[in-house]
Amino acid sequence: MDVDVFPEGIAEGNRKLQTSDAPVAAPDECDGGQPRPWEAGWQPVAARADSASEDAFVPQLVAEQAAATPGATALVAGDRALTYRELDTWADRLAQRLRALGVGPDVLVGLCVERSIEMVVGALGILKAGGAYVPLDPAYPAERLAFMLNDARVPVLVTRQRIAARLPAGAWQVIDPDADARLIPDADARLIPAAPVAATRLAYVIYTSGSTGQPKGVRITHAGLLNLVSWHRRAFAVTAADRATHVASPAFDAAGWELWPYLTAGASVYLVDEDTRRAPAPLRDWLTARGITISFLPTALAESVMALEWPRETALRVLLTGGDALHRYPSPALPFAVVNNYGPTESTVVATSGVVRAGERLDLPPWGGRQHAGLHPGRAPAAGPVRRAGRAMYRGRRRGAGVPQSSRLDRREVRPRSVRR
């Protein structure tokens, strides 16, 4: 947020950022004949309006879906499928086990499970217990996992025994999301309400490499997560009829983006197997065969999938991408929209999002990359400090002594070299 744009102060400027519908101005030097961002469906951070109700957060919204449509399919992985009733009951059992171990508001719980149904159950169970999950990729080196677990000071680690066996010993107690949760009878689990959730309490802490290369834990609140979920459901008209995908690594912040907007809407989430996930042509065939309607793919994979020939008739209507600069325009023949996204982890996954129209300008990158991270409402900005604010912002970083543990304002500098020709 620029104090020159909002001289009346941060609080009032923050309110205007949250509620303004003003378009974002593009730098003149970036024009080069390209469509302006708003002409391509560009949605600035202001579109992430804070209009969502705070009466219910993600764990409660998933429980409401389970009560409304218990037999609907929530998760599919290969030949396994989980209904909303099964997902909610399993997560409730895990939540009861975690609460018995002292998990509650702002208690961090490690979640080191490969991309699977059990990983989703683990995350939801931690949220239901009132805690905050710390997603870790089991493929990481053991030393890196141990560093993050010790840095987060987790009292409990939800993981499989075979994964725990290769980790150094720690002060945490290991809970298997399958075996331990099943110690709780179904009848008892269904009687346990979700733990009370407050907007400012932590939902998850995700570790990023940071500029120093040392992992830093970014703390995301329930308000920030709900803001993302509400915006996504409105922006992409998500309904219970949608079929989405879970492709990202569990430790990539996009993983939560792939799950919660859909599971709070009664839609189905399909988990792609590892071999298919790495191969563009088989992935295209899998998306088509499963009737996927919305999918996120990391930039490099999305570019490869976009370059393929697609059947004229496909259920896929939106392909989301992000994570790196997009270098390819979609072909006019593609039967779905391509939406490019950018956002630091600190702004709860997405700060800017826009449709990339088909084009032939090979000398210019498509709109929607990092060069738009610092645009100010209502005027063309110059290089310099950028202010991001609002409910989507993180609550601080967890990384050793001296690192601020609370923050509602983040400052990043956008330099001329970030605008690519």
Can you give a write-up of this model?
By secondary structure, the chain is of the alpha/beta class. The chain is 28% helix and 19% strand. The strands form 5 sheets. The chain has a 4-stranded mixed β-sheet with strand order 2-1-10-9. Strands 4-3-5-6 form a 4-stranded parallel β-sheet, with helices on both faces. Strands 11-12-13-14 form a 4-stranded mixed β-sheet. A hairpin with a 7-residue loop joins strand 7 and strand 8. Helix 3 (84-100) crosses helix 4. The longest helix is centred in the N-terminal third of the chain and has 17 residues, at 84-100. It is globular and about 55 Å long. The protein starts with 9 loop residues before the first helix and ends in a 7-residue tail after the last strand. Mean pLDDT is 77; it is low at 1-52, 367-396 and 399-421.
What's the average pLDDT? 77
Shape: globular
Please report the total strand number as a whole number.
Answer: 17
The secondary-structure element order is HHEEHEHEHEHEHEEHEHEHHEHEEEEEE
Give the uncertain stretches in residue-range form: 1-52, 367-396, 399-421
Count of individual helical segments: 12
Which short descriptors sum up this protein?
globular, 12 helices, 421 residues, 4-stranded parallel beta sheet, alpha/beta, disordered N terminus
